[in-house]
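Good morning,

Attaching, inline, the backbone tokens for the sequence recovery test we're adding to the shared suite. The designed sequence is right after.
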């Protein structure tokens, strides 16, 4: 596991070092709210450079201020239909998870059953977790599996409670294995025009970091 990078103090960031104010800021960060709005980007394949940086399963996600969500929607029935695509945000008021529920889910027929799989660069914030729980309770025809590259602020009690509540609501939460990163590379990452498809090249600590996050998630959900 890569060493933790030292975080600058609040005063270095021009923020108050007051404990009470710091706690309030932490709660807001858990929900990733009150940030300037950015456009939600949609598409079928994301640029390789984004994948290599944003999906990397490092412990500290310094500079990774986006959420990338690749989705597969499988319709169950006589004629099985599969659709896929990706969404990205910049931790704005409308996160990628919210964008899925606002733009993709309405296209689903409430009379049909769906298996939905997300491959997400990091696990949902508290607000998105609440929306996921609410959606699964209201839509019994949905089965949602979320594969995440990293755990977002997993040390915080509020975040741990949100992950547990997602599990209780029927959401399957998993850490992405090296094979899952390869699946995303093959199915959601665009290749250079005119070039042959390149094989996925795992980064050096991909397995070690997977083991780390899998252990932490198991501790939270036990």
């Amino acid at each position: 596991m890569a060493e933790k990078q030292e975080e600058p103090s609040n005063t270095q960031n021009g923020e108050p070092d007051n404990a009470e104010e710091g706690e309030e800021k932490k709660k807001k960060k858990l929900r990733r709210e009150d940030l300037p709005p950015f456009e939600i980007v949609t598409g079928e394949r994301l640029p390789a450079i984004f994948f290599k940086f944003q999906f990397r399963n490092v412990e500290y996600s310094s500079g990774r201020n986006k959420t990338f969500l690749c989705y597969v929607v499988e319709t169950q029935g006589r004629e099985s239909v599969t659709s896929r695509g990706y969404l990205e945000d910049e931790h704005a008021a409308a996160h990628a998870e919210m964008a899925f529920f606002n733009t993709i889910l309405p296209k689903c027929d409430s009379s049909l059953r769906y298996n939905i799989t997300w491959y997400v660069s990091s696990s949902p914030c508290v607000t998105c977790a609440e929306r996921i729980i609410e959606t699964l309770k209201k839509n019994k025809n949905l089965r949602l599996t979320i594969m995440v590259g990293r755990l977002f602020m997993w040390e915080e009690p509020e975040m741990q409670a949100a992950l547990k509540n997602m599990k209780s609501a029927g959401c399957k939460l998993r850490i992405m294995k090296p094979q899952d990163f390869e699946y995303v590379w093959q199915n959601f990452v665009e290749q250079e025009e005119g070039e042959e498809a390149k094989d996925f090249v795992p980064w050096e600590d991909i397995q070690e970091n997977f083991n780390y996050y899998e252990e932490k998630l198991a501790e939270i959900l036990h």
